[in-house]
Amino acid sequence: MPVSESHFLWSTLSVGAVLEAAAMLLAFVGVLFLGSKFLPGHRVAGPEIEGRSRTYKLNGLALFLITVIGGCLAQVSGLFSLSVLHTHFAALFVAANAFAFAFSAWLYFRRARIQHTSPGNWRSFLMGSEFNPTYLGVDLKLFSYRPSLIGLALFNASFAVVQYETYGTLTLAMVLYQLFTFSYVLNYFHFEDGMIYTWDMVSERFGWTLVWGDYVLAPFFYCLPGWWLVHASAPLPPPAAVAIVLLFAFGFWLFRGANQQKHRFKRDPGVTIWGKPARTLDGRLLISGFWGIGRHLNYTGEICIYLAFALTTGFASWLPYLLPLWLAGLLWHRSRRDDRRCRAKYGELWKQYTQRVRYSMLPFVY
Ligand code: NDP
To answer: Does ligand 1 come within 6 angstroms of the Cβ of 198?
Structure first.
């Protein structure tokens, strides 16, 4: 972020601000937890993990929409301004880190207490000891994406509020950034059932790595381009805006399309993809649609989306581009890990798949 913004962040940090931020964070997570527990939601059965299939209650979309409507009403009525998230950003960052460490420690000792064993080593703390810890019937891993992404959406909205309160208008770049990031988070909750089949849900234990990613990394780092836009005065030329919209639309089509095709296939191997019955390898691996072109085009689509977020800031600084760069590195690494996992799981069938679909994220390149 610009030097003046980083100076602003430091200047807002005080013990009082951190205590206020901690209260805000606990109230936010607590309300979302109660909402997750008590709001009605569609129940779906997930894949088998450790020999057991679980049922998940999906009410993230309702929680997200209630938060959005509540935030808009509070803002418009003057009851509360989302700009408080901007002024408390640094303090919230400190509070969120403390929360992530405390939550991970609780998870670490909890299993030992339940099973009357020793808590394990550092690896158990970092990578987790349980796949799907639940508390009061709420799956904590699935739940944690809610404060994570709703928090991200609120931070993004606070940037627009601060720009409007400061300058009395919103720039074209800010409007595009808001539309892109809102659609991205809305898509996650609209497609929350797809989350149940992701790598994190199926293959990762719930420890510090995922907890810190959910409560710190995603909300505080993924809004990086938004910081640039608050006081950015250089206008975004309309042809550049059109090109960025096209890139976002293309990325979204790839990201959502690929994820949905796989998800529909997992639920029913007889689905139609692009108007034709799905072609498969042994009924287990999809080779139609995006999955017949690349083994991880969903990752490519998401990188295009994040690049579009960063491009709204123009080329005044390379720092907003850390976000798409980081995601590209993360997903490239993940594609390699996933290939190893699938090779071990599917054996010869995976070999046939990689011979048939040779590229992972970028056809003819990688
Ligand atoms: P995928 O949704 O691509 O899931 C990979 C799994 O899908 C494989 O392990 C395998 O599992 C199954 N699979 C792979 N190929 C096929 C096939 N041809 N047919 C049928 N099943 C197949 O990966 P992730 O869970 O990593 O990611 C999910 C989404 O989350 C992606 O869109 C990604 O971009 C996004 N993401 C975003 C991050 C962020 O920070 N913004 C971070 C990480 C992910 P199985 O055992 O079920 O067959």
So the answer is: yes
Amino acid at 211: V
**E-strand spans in 188-297?**
272-273, 276-277, 280-281, 285-286
Residues 286/278, Cβ–Cβ less than 8 Å = yes
Q: Which residue's CA is the nearest one to ligand 1's atom 45?
A: 342
Q: Any residues with CB less than 8 A from the CB of 187 and at least 6 apart, and which?
A: 252, 256
Per-residue pLDDT of the chain (366 residues; tens, 9 = 90+): 665 777 777 788 889 999 999 999 999 999 999 999 999 999 998 887 777 888 999 999 999 999 999 999 999 999 989 999 999 999 999 999 999 999 999 999 987 777 767 777 888 889 988 888 999 999 999 999 999 999 999 999 999 999 999 999 999 999 999 999 999 999 999 999 988 888 888 888 999 999 999 999 999 999 999 999 999 988 999 999 999 999 999 999 999 999 999 999 988 988 999 999 999 999 999 999 999 999 999 999 999 999 999 999 999 899 999 999 999 999 999 999 999 999 999 999 999 999 999 999 999 889
Ligand 1 centroid to Cα of residue 194, in Å, is 10
* Predicted TM-score (pTM) above 0.90: yes
**Does the Cβ of 255 fall within 6 Å of ligand 1?**
yes
Burial class (CB in 10 A: 0-12, 13-18, 19+), 266: middle
Pocket test for ligand 1, best of 191, 202, 262 (most atoms within 8 A of CB): 262
Cα dist from 215 to 62, 73, 211, whole Å: 20, 25, 6
Q: 308, 169, 323, 185: which is closest to 232 by C-alpha?
A: 169
Q: Which residues of 279-316 are buried (b: 16+ CB within 10 A; e: fewer)?
A: eebeeebbbbbbbbebbbbbbbbbbbbbbbbbbbbbee
Total residue length of the chain = 366
